[in-house]
Amino acid sequence: ESANAFGDDTMYIERFVENPRHVEIQIMADSHGNVVALGERDCSVQRNHQKLIEESPSPAIDEETRRKMNEYAVLAAKTVGYTNAGTIEFVLAPDGKYYFIEMNTRIQVEHPVTEMVTGVDLVREQIRIAAHLKLNYKQSDIELKGHALECRINAENPQEGFRPSPGIVSSLHIPGGFGVRIDTTLYQGYQVSSHYDSMIAKVIVHGRNRIEAIRKMRRVLSELVIDGIDTNQELQYLI
């Protein structure tokens, strides 16, 4: 079929991994040849191949696996002479083996969880890299502290087949607190368009451990108020 359709019968075979986890490594690379890995994000909770919840560190890998994945991510970036923020993505099999999926050559939606556990401002580092400055830190400076979670708040109705829910935000309350970060452009009277991606906010929390982070996330989700449109906020709480 390939030869008939494209004149080329070369085949690329990809391993099928059943019940995988999605684990990705954040890297930063400057124009001076320095590349640093900033640990992993676990993005396994998805719907229609779109991430819903991201966390760091991953509860599914040990220190040795983390070290190797970081090393492979740095090697991949150096091999292609990459410069900028980037993400090396892997599929993690139930037996602990992992396989390269792709590289995202940009900052990603879920980058705040990495910022929370490393203390590194990734966007600031991007600006420094664009100015041809060296990275502010070495690999030995990177340490993951505590646990971070991010929930994507989408303008959609989960009870009606995730029907998009554009409209005007009639009332808005954004909670806060220590270790709480909410990235959004919402305000009372904001018009949520039907022409763009449905994500309208990111709720990010940081705790001393995973249990504390989960409890904090549920508290924030229970206090967040977005009236006038439907969102997946309640679904995120239940997950």
Task: Give an overview of the whole structure.
The chain has 239 residues and is of the alpha+beta class. The protein has 6 helices and 14 strands. It has helices spanning 2-6, 63-79, 111-118, 122-130, 210-223, 233-238; strands spanning 21-29, 35-47, 50-56, 84-92, 98-104, 147-154, 156-157, 163-164, 167-168, 171-173, 180-184, 191-192, 199-207, 225-227. Strands 5-4-1-2-3-6-13-11 form an 8-stranded antiparallel beta sheet. A hairpin with a 5-residue loop joins strand 4 and strand 5 (98-104). The N and C termini lie far apart (43 Å). The relative contact order is 0.15. The mean pLDDT is 96.
Keywords:
alpha+beta, eight-stranded antiparallel sheet, two-stranded antiparallel sheet, 6 helices, globular
Instruction: Name the beta content range.
Output: 25-35%
Shape: globular
Termini Cα gap: 43 Å
Largest sheet: 8 strands, antiparallel
Mean pLDDT over the full residue set: 96
Which structural class do you get from the secondary structure elements? alpha+beta
- Count of individual helical segments: 6
Widest sheet: strand order? 5-4-1-2-3-6-13-11
Q: Give the % helix.
A: 10-25%
Tell me the radius of gyration: 20 Å
Poorly predicted residue ranges? none
Order of helices and strands: HEEEHEEHHEEEEEEEEHEH
Outline the secondary-structure elements.
Blueprint: H1 2-6, E1 21-29, E2 35-47, E3 50-56, H2 63-79, E4 84-92, E5 98-104, H3 111-118, H4 122-130, E6 147-154, E7 156-157, E8 163-164, E9 167-168, E10 171-173, E11 180-184, E12 191-192, E13 199-207, H5 210-223, E14 225-227, H6 233-238
